[in-house]
Automatic annotation (TrEMBL):
Keywords: 2Fe-2S, Iron, Iron-sulfur, Metal-binding. Residues 2-104 form the 2Fe-2S ferredoxin-type domain. Belongs to the adrenodoxin/putidaredoxin family. Coiled coil: none annotated. This is Ferredoxin family 2Fe-2S iron-sulfur cluster binding protein. PANTHER family: FERREDOXIN-2, MITOCHONDRIAL (PTHR23426:SF65), FERREDOXIN/ADRENODOXIN (PTHR23426). Pfam families: Fer2. Its cofactor is [2Fe-2S] cluster.
């Protein structure tokens, strides 16, 4: 099974099983990682904002215009920011590393 690593707000790295076909948001919830996801993955908020490790960012599909619009509302936006609900685990992403931002803003 693929793995991924969440870097929590305090810097703690947590490697977890990342089942194929689940979103980063779903994987986080499955393992008790502190990501809100207020809209439950319907692309209507920015509370599942994650910062993708730069070495992985180029391997991701490009964000949709809708995702980019929601990211504009995210707290602590970075160059490699994405919404966890839009990142779907594939074999290609085995080992993915994402960092949780300093906070979130629910402006959905």
């Amino acid at each position: 099974m693929p793995k991924m690593t969440f870097v929590e707000r305090d810097g703690t790295r947590r490697e977890v099983d990342a089942p194929l076909g689940l979103s980063v948001l779903e994987i986080a919830h499955k393992h008790g990682v502190d990501i809100e996801g207020a809209c439950e993955g319907s692309l209507a908020c920015s509370t599942c904002h994650v910062i993708v490790d730069a070495s992985w960012f180029g391997k991701l599909e490009s964000p949709t215009e809708d995702e980019e619009d929601m990211l504009d509302l995210a707290f602590d936006l970075q160059e490699t920011s994405r919404l966890g609900c839009q990142l779907i685990m594939t074999d290609k992403l085995d080992g993915l590393v994402v960092k949780l931002p300093a906070g979130s803003r629910n402006a959905g």
